[in-house]
Amino acid sequence: MLARRAPPEANVVTCSPGAAEEGRPPTADGAVEGPAAERHAVVTGALEEVEREVRRRVEAGAVAPDEDRALDRAFRRLAPSPGSTGRLRSVTSLVADAAVIDPQVPVASQRPGGSMVKRLVRKAVGWYVRFFVAQIARFQGAVARAVAVLAEELEDLRARTQRAASPLPLPTAARREGPDRAPWWGRVALSSLTDAPGRVVHGDCGTGALLETLAGAGIDAYGTDPSAGPGGPDGPPREVLAVSLLEHLADMGDGTLGGVVAEGGVEVLPVAECEQLVAMAAQRLAPGGVLLVASASPAAWAASASPVLADLAPGRPLHPETWAFLMGHSGFDPVTVHQGGPDDTEYVVAGVLAAP
Amino acid sequence: MRPGHAPAVRRIDQVIPTLASRDAIGQHTTAARQVLREMGFVSDIFYANASADVLRDGRPLEELGDEDPTGRWLLYQLSIGSPAGEVFAKRPEPKLVDYHNITPAELLRAWEPSVAEELRLGRSQLVRLAPVTRFAMADSAFNEQELRSAGYGATAVAPLMIDLEALAGSPDPVVAARLLRARAEGGTGLLFVGKVAPHKAQHDLLKALAVYRRLYDPRARLRIVGGAIGDAYPEALARFASMLGVDDAVEMVGSVPHAELVAYYEGSDVFVCLSDHEGFCVPLLEAMMHRLPIVAFGAAAVPDTVGDAGLVLPDKQALRVAAAVDRVVRDESLRAAMADAAADQVAQLSLGPSRAAFRGVIEQALAAPAQSAPAQSAQ
Lengths: 356, 379
What we know:
The complex is a heterodimer of chains A (356) and B (379). By secondary structure, chain A is an alpha/beta fold. In chain A, 46% of the residues lie in helices and 13% in strands.
């Protein structure tokens, strides 16, 4: 993902730095007067009108709420696979930094006239030395770059291996809710999320039954589901984005969510992505925000999952204690575990993000 | 006036990774040499690489040590990582740095890892040069702030020295006629000039164009002028344009001669810049020269360069960009205000004041104490 620097907000509504440098007399409150100030007012006014126009268009539904992000994701998929930074970086940087040959032999000398002699010798053989130095420097520069690129490729390969997923279309992880029925842990979700300090996102929301339950209790919730069509899976009325929960969290700003509910896909996430999910949720949630992870127990999952899924899935359900450990490590406190479902074969782990 | 120093400063030479005639930093470096010579210093440019047409305008880096270091200062033009930076760092002469910003490597890593590596090296050199540099200058306040964050103690701002008069000139008649015909057919003409590269974010221009065509002007066109860095990004742009259904409305012009560039500026309705990073952005200045209104995302030094000569946006949401373009196109009084502001901005950044500012900064640098305490390093 491209890192983007946030621009100074002052550009939108305040005087540009250049105005003050032009020597125009400031007023008592520091503002600039004269034609430049009038122009600035015109430009600022236009920006405010642009903002009103944007709000009006959004309210009229002229653009989908997720359109920009969806297009960003689509474009990112066209990018070559990015390499990740890592330990190799420090080694390759040494190669790059050392790929320098200085043909200027030091001429300092402690003997009288020694410096002059060295300088003359250096000058005399300079043409000879430079011929070789230029070639060696070119070669070393090429090698340094090649090593750096190889390191990137290696890191990329490592990252891919860590999150290796079967390219085959695996059977989906089981969802244990009915077509129009919220899961047994709906009451846990309600009690945990009632005072959520922001919007709640439900990953792998399926038919949207839990979203309906949450909405019925006045909780502002929306869903993500990679299998959702333009109108959501099977046309649920709630807002559903057709992305995975991890992808969506990656797009969100820090502290922007009040709750994150993860189920379904979490049962087959590789361990590294389980850790990533908890860490990312901790970043995206506001203080007091809630992370809920709902899953089958490992034993129940192994017993009920299809043999193909059980053999080829990149991950297995974690024990609830493991989720609780990960959450505690990422700053969630308190963390509670609720057992339920048929014969208590399922669980929900709820963590509240403590204030920093 | 030369401040008294022991030994007296007799020459100030510049070191630059690549000296190129069509490059803003190359032009700035050549102008800097002229100012330094006018100040009475002997001054040469030492380059690690040079475009063929300016090979004789400077000297190869290998000759840097041929001159007596007594009474000599060195000025390094820093905009990318280069072995030249290592050679410069090891020299015994008092050192100055002229910083033009370095694109964050992560913006290019996925697309052009080799270039990204040069950028990473540049950031590393920026930090490592801080403790051995007597004085550093930057071509914008934004860049000066980066210098201070990197640990430079004594700093000042001296704008790029670009001959803006040379940016004017007559448009290529063939291109001008073609653009005139296109304009007569209707549809707003959006223009961006700059390298086709991920950090220039032409893909965001495509997004904005798609929304602008859908909501405001279905016949709008986008022309992107500039050579490409590598193949991967331009290929992805083409596929993205097709995905968005705007491939027929986008013209990837490539690098063009000056007269054709003038024709594109004069034959367009609005200049749109959505770069993720700009250390200065000379094309913004060119747009101002040609009275072309600007809509830009306020990344890095863009707000400094644009001033009130354009609408500087807080983000690149396609709808916001489209609405801003629509506003500029429809509002004649806004365009007039921006054109007046552009004239002021161009006057402020023109060669005369920029040369005077550079001269002042050099005098300030020579008077700076030898051991200016560097600020705390950023790394």
